[in-house]
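seq:
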Amino acid sequence: MSVVLPADERPDVPWTVLSQGGEDGAVGAQRPVRTWRVFGQVVAAATVVLVLVALLGVAASRRIAEQESVNDAARRTDLVADAVVQPVLLDGIVTSDPAAVAALDTVVREHVLDDDVVRVKLWDADGRIVYSDEPRLVGRTFGLGADERAVLVRPTTEADVSDLDEPENEFERGQGKLLEVYRPVWTPDGTVLLLETYSRYDAVTERSTAIWRGFAGITLTSLLLLVVLMLPVLWTLLDRLRRGQQQREVLLQRAIDASDQERRRIAATLHDGVVQELAASSFALAGTADRVERSAAPELAEPVREAAATVRASIRGLRSLLVDIYPASLRDSGLRAALGDLVGGLASRGVDVRLDLPADDEVRLPPEQERLVYRVAQETLRNAVTHAQARTVVVRLARHAGVAVLEVVDDGLGFDAPTVLAAPAEGHFGLRLLRDVAVAGGARLEVATAPGAGCRWRLTLPKETDD
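struct:
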């Protein structure tokens, strides 16, 4: 018949996971670092980083290359203005003098216009086109933008993508994306004019592509070389980590074995020494009390009996301590008997402790798992009685899909698990101790508790594997 857990009738309390279980630290079965697995994960992460850096680097290099290509177009316009246009520029160009226009037009068509440069315009400060290789534009006024007027005031060379929707660009439409570059030039009498050239953007794209391919090749090659050089170092570090973990697990197992041997030695010393001597003293005192009662001073018999009772109480306390230090019943009689001995000592303290265990054949677990179940049950029961002031405790052990699960439920005061775990009270390390025990055993440990809501522990053991 199933025992109803006290927490089943309480409001739902969220579970706090203290140990994830699985591969996080089972003792006794060494689990070295899987070098190839970790190596693969690191390589995958490095590949992702490499791809991201490469993409960012390529994008940045492409942007830089495009800007550099625009600067090349601006420098070309500077060269055309200084070496070709400026030397043949006459004062009459301002008034569209035929001779001045013819001289400039000849030079422009022979030395400026080509497959890349498709249009040349010359503006005055009022926004009137005084010359263009497109005659239909000459004499028309459109007005200069703020950038163009600024160039006339502070001489510089500017480049920008041409807005073909503007009226002055109606004859450039249909030629694709264009880059316009403008800068000031001066007539012999000092009149400032604005020279504007229109180039196909394809030339800029081709130039930038050539530049960023070079940048991208250098970037990718450098990153790949860095990864290749890091692989031996990574492999060495992982190998050292694996060996270090193996050494730590061996030392931990030796420490656990030494602790178990020391517990066994202390328990044997107490049982064969102090307990036996106290038992002999108890019998001697009981016999003395009987003799004193029949003597001439029977009033002394009662103190002697009280002393014998005190000795017997001490013996019971020592035997209870022996069970805590080293439960012989766990080794000799199995987990069922050990848990029975564990809860039996609490009945005298007014605590109703109930066991809900499956059949004997289902209770049997590997020795290391039996020790883990016993230690967790021992610590949780101690917390329930000592700190939680519980009056009823249920200990349940069951199997679900071949996995053993221990539950310990009490109706005590409860506590705030995250707060206690983060900042335990001075001298109280029960929660951390339970977590460390579960982690060492590779088990999953959870607690559901809240102030006034009791406490429910759940230990899920790792699934047994066939060797």
